[in-house]
């Protein structure tokens, strides 16, 4: 599956969750898309629920199947709760950290900023969206990119105190990952245990 570039409202309605942020369509049509979306009453199987949760996580973080599977196996090998580690690894991808810091309005635009070499890690340009940010590393905006309208618009009025695992320095337009986020602090509505059960079959 290539990265999804279609209507975001359609995906939000599919999962019944505003996974791409506030969605006006979802509040009006809180049922799956399609001709018979409002009439579906079929019970979803256990496998279907697990697959749905994995797809929701992939769409939320903009990760392809191969990348997602790699992160899962990495979480499996590490010490700790596999599901929680998986969400932590997704959260500390560079594109997601740029989004959480408010440098970009969406994860897809954050991925674009990283790919176009506008973002630095510890002072060096990094153009790999999947780069894994480590605690203590400083993520900033490249000097010549600080005047970009998309960045200044995204940062205007952004509340930097809502994510306790990061800190923001406005004068330098940079933020630091203080520590790995606790699962309770991550706002995404994902049942990671279902994903673990799916991959464990």
UniProtKB/TrEMBL annotation:
One of its GO terms (molecular function) is rRNA binding. Gene3D superfamilies: Ribosomal Protein S4 Delta 41, Chain A, domain 1, RNA-binding S4 domain. InterPro entries: Ribosomal_uS4, Ribosomal_uS4_bac-type, Ribosomal_uS4_CS, Ribosomal_uS4_N, S4_RNA-bd, S4_RNA-bd_sf. Residues 3-91 form the Small ribosomal subunit protein uS4 N-terminal domain. The keyword Ribonucleoprotein applies. GO terms for biological process: ribosomal small subunit biogenesis; translation. HAMAP family: Ribosomal_uS4_B (MF_01306_B). With S5 and S12 plays an important role in translational accuracy. This is Small ribosomal subunit protein uS4. It comes from Porphyromonas loveana. The gene is rpsD.
